């Protein structure tokens, strides 16, 4: 699992700040028409103002609620399914062709179909996000189960523990670092698909709807500002989940380091 130290974070911040300064200077020197493409400083100012804009906050709450629900549904489906398929090899062999068929299908391509199935936009957004986010959690869970030492499972079975106890006491804890990584990847995928579905399907509330309305008014500064805030949210969630992984699964990182 990734571990970001202070030096790496500082270098990243310096690089980002340097790029923004260069873009700001290029815009002020006339590299492009700032009436059409606003300056970096203007976009950052608008992004800050959006955090106090009631209309945007309502849209953000709608998108983040949908994102959280989609992530919970994803975990509820993918983790038990991954544990089952990882523990029961014949089931995994039987289902693997279906997984490999469905996994490459772009979730965005399913939006028109899902719109026909659901008249309520929240259900549509959740369905599309769950479809996209399901695969990282499912695949990581399966590989996590496979990574467990067979001797640990056999030892527990030799003491009379049944499949349920083995799964609870050995399989789930052993696969937990892989599951956590899958959830972290799924969190980023889910927020992308929620906003994308809002952009394509529309609706009443949502960041994607807000961006569409801003585009209809030719407010590129608001469009980019809202997009930046979505990106910052994704970075924040990823950083929190990485920190959680590093704190909870130090033993896994130590074992991986010893293996290499």
Walk me through what this model shows:
By secondary structure, the chain is mostly helical. It has one domain (40-259): MetI-like fold (Orthogonal Bundle), CATH 1.10.3720. The chain is built from eleven helices and no strands. The protein has helices at 6-28, 40-50, 54-87, 89-102, 111-117, 121-146, 150-158, 163-201, 207-216, 220-248, 250-259. It is globular, with a radius of gyration of 22 Å. One of its GO terms (cellular component) is plasma membrane. It is found in: Cell membrane. Keywords: Cell membrane, Membrane, Transmembrane, Transmembrane helix, Transport.
In short:
With 260 residues, this protein is mostly helical. It has eleven helices and no strands. Helices cover 82% and strands 0% of the residues.
């Amino acid at each position: 699992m990734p571990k970001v130290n202070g030096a790496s974070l500082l270098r990243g911040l310096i690089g980002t700040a340097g790029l923004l300064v260069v873009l700001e200077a290029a815009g002020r020197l006339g590299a492009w028409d700032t009436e059409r493409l606003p300056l970096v400083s203007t976009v950052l100012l608008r992004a800050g103002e959006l955090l106090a804009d009631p209309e945007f906050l309502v849209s953000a709450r709608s998108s983040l609620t949908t994102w959280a629900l989609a992530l919970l549904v994803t975990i509820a489906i993918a983790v038990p399914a991954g544990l089952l398929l990882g523990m029961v090899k014949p089931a995994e062999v039987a289902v693997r062709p279906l997984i490999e068929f469905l996994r490459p299908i772009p979730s965005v391509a399913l939006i028109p179909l899902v719109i026909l199935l659901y008249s309520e936009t929240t259900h549509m957004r959740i369905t599309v996000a769950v479809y996209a986010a399901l695969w990282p959690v499912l695949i990581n869970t399966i590989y996590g189960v496979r990574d467990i030492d067979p001797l640990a499972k056999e030892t527990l079975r030799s003491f009379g523990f049944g499949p349920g106890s083995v799964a609870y006491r050995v399989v789930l804890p052993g696969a937990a670092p892989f599951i956590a990584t899958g959830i972290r990847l799924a969190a980023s995928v889910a927020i992308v698909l929620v906003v994308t579905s809002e952009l394509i399907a529309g609706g009443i509330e949502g960041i994607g709807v807000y961006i569409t309305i801003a585009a209809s008014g030719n407010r590129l500064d608001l469009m980019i500002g809202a997009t930046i805030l979505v990106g910052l949210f994704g970075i924040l969630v990823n950083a929190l989940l990485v920190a959680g992984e590093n704190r909870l699964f130090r033993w896994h990182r130590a074992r991986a380091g010893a293996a290499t």
